[in-house]
Amino acid sequence: MFRLTALALVSLTASVASAADFPLTDKNTTITFVGAKPEGTHSGGFTTVTGTASASDNNPTNLQITLDIDMNSLYSDNPKLTNHLKSPDFFGVKSNPKAKFVAAKIEKSGDVYKITGNLTMIGKTNEVVIPAKIAIIEGGLSLTSDFIIDRTQWGMVYGKGQIDDNVKLSVRVKTK
């Protein structure tokens, strides 16, 4: 017969109570991008994301984040560009229907946090460091981040020299 001591029960209850799980969906998470070329910029994003963020003790440095991005949900400010971005010249959505981000470590650096994690797109995984403002308050998660990635690190070289290699990404999460 299994017996829980009072101390074990209190410890179990405290660990359950101090952990917070936040589902990440397209209703509370947005990912947008801006790409540039000499003639101007184009913006877009992804409408379908799923994942989880979990934190113990409401401490952002303990946050564990896993996010899947449905690459077919990609959109841009120009329908013709949207189709081109989905083609093998860029994301090759038919062969690579998902992108994934998994946080490996989060550190506080002044007023911001540095999220180090692995971003997998187009079959390639690269480490990225994302500066973010993170708050876990009243049962909700708030995260905002603006950062730049070099698209060529994932093999996107179409238009090299005509399209800027650096792409600005913005991530917004508000679960409550």
Write up this protein.
- By secondary structure, the protein is mainly beta.
- Helices cover 12% and strands 55% of the residues.
- It has an eleven-stranded antiparallel sheet with strand order 1-4-5-7-8-9-10-11-2-3-6.
- The longest helix has 13 residues, at 6-18.
- The N and C termini lie far apart (42 Å).
Set out the fold topology:
Layout lengths: L5 H13 E7 L3 E9 L2 E7 L2 E8 L7 E7 L3 E3 L2 H8 L11 E12 L2 E10 L2 E14 L2 E11 L15 E9 L2
Antiparallel strand pairs: 1-4, 2-3, 2-11, 3-6, 4-5, 5-7, 7-8, 8-9, 9-10, 10-11
Q: What structural category arises from helix and sheet content?
A: mainly beta
Given as residue ranges, the uncertain stretches (5+ residues, pLDDT < 50) are: 1-17
Q: Write down how many β-strands occur, each being a DSSP E stretch of 2 or more residues.
A: 11
Anisotropy-based shape = globular
The CA-CA distance between the termini, in Å, is 42 Å
